[in-house]
Specification:
The chain has four helices and two strands, in the order αααββα. By secondary structure, the chain is mostly helical.
Length: 129
């Protein structure tokens, strides 16, 4: 279940979604939610979902929609594009077809991490079991 809704994405964009965007937004919200859940693992997501987490998920999808609208035709996974002496470099994830968690978004999720996101695993030899 997504941690944000279409209305949250529209609020960040400041406009209603187009028909094409609305058809894709649910799967994009689920993918963005998966990234947030993975980032916060092993901590459980509080129920009801805090507004800060909802805003992070909605911001990821809004950024994806803006990127797909503003820069159509960029090859997926491109690191740079060039023409003659002119080159443009892209940061990691900037040309991906899915949402991504930036360092700023990870910082916004930090209050919801338990134990700094580390999990303890007891180590021992199988010979002494």
């Amino acid at each position: 279940m997504p941690l944000a809704a279409q209305a949250d994405v529209e609020e960040i964009l400041g406009r209603p979604l187009t028909t094409e965007e609305a058809q894709l937004v649910n799967s994009q919200l689920e993918e963005a939610s998966d990234l947030v859940i993975g980032e916060l693992y092993p901590c459980p997501i509080p129920d009801p979902t805090p507004e800060a987490i909802t805003r992070v998920v909605a911001a990821m999808v809004a950024a994806l929609i803006q990127r797909l609208t503003d820069s159509p035709g960029l090859p997926e996974g491109a690191n740079s594009l060039g023409a003659g002496p002119y080159n443009v470099g892209f940061s990691e994830g900037a040309t991906s077809a899915g949402p991504w968690l930036t360092a700023k978004l990870k910082t916004r999720l930090r209050p919801f991490r338990c134990g700094n996101g580390m999990a303890s695993v007891q180590l021992g030899s199988e010979a002494y079991a």
